[in-house]
Amino acid sequence: xxxxSLQLHALVLLLTACASATVHSQPDEMxxxxxxxxxxxxxxxxxLQMPAWQDQVYFQDxxxxxxxxxxIYMPHCTLKLTAKKETPQTIQADTFVVKKSYTELFFMQVQxxxxxxxxxxAAAAWGAAAPIDFETNxxxxxxxxxxxxxxxxxxxPEAICMICADWGLPPERAHITxxxxxxxxxxxxxxxxxxxxxxxx
Length: 201
What we know:
Layout: E1 3-12, E2 22-23, E3 26-27, E4 41-44, E5 48-50, E6 56-60, E7 63-65, E8 76-81, E9 89-91, E10 94-110, H1 117-124, E11 132-135, E12 140-152, E13 159-168, H2 178-185, E14 189-192
Antiparallel strand pairs: 1-10, 1-11, 2-3, 4-10, 4-14, 5-9, 6-7, 6-8, 8-13, 10-12, 12-13
């Protein structure tokens, strides 16, 4: 068997033209083009425990978990802190304001059977480009669309970002919708949308 490399390349998409997807002049929350408006809030309904040496907690089907428990082929989200610590961290119930919202498309060039450990390590970095080597003679390509929400909380400024993602196979069009985000978060976090500028009452 030969050793092959995994490369994760993150490309930022400029979707400004798509951000105003509407139906009858109202934002279409069902559209793949819909982006969470700036000023929306993510309400954490319960404290979350972050293990030592971790800076992210993952959400899928309303459950919280480490990256090792995530099924990358289903919608999932991650709440990211500024830094890892040598002791456990607690994220208290709080309201986090979305101060910036955009999408990214991650092109995954995977030389591996489905779901090897190398994919998880690379994908968890959300944009890292360092190669991870493992042995295989299989191949698979896929891509991940991520909704990125930069967050702010006066009480907990260390919670900086929520990223929600879904995957697709070329030539499919990967997209992450509002319904998928809410499905991943479940009752643990509540996404409350701000009304975009110019939207009708």
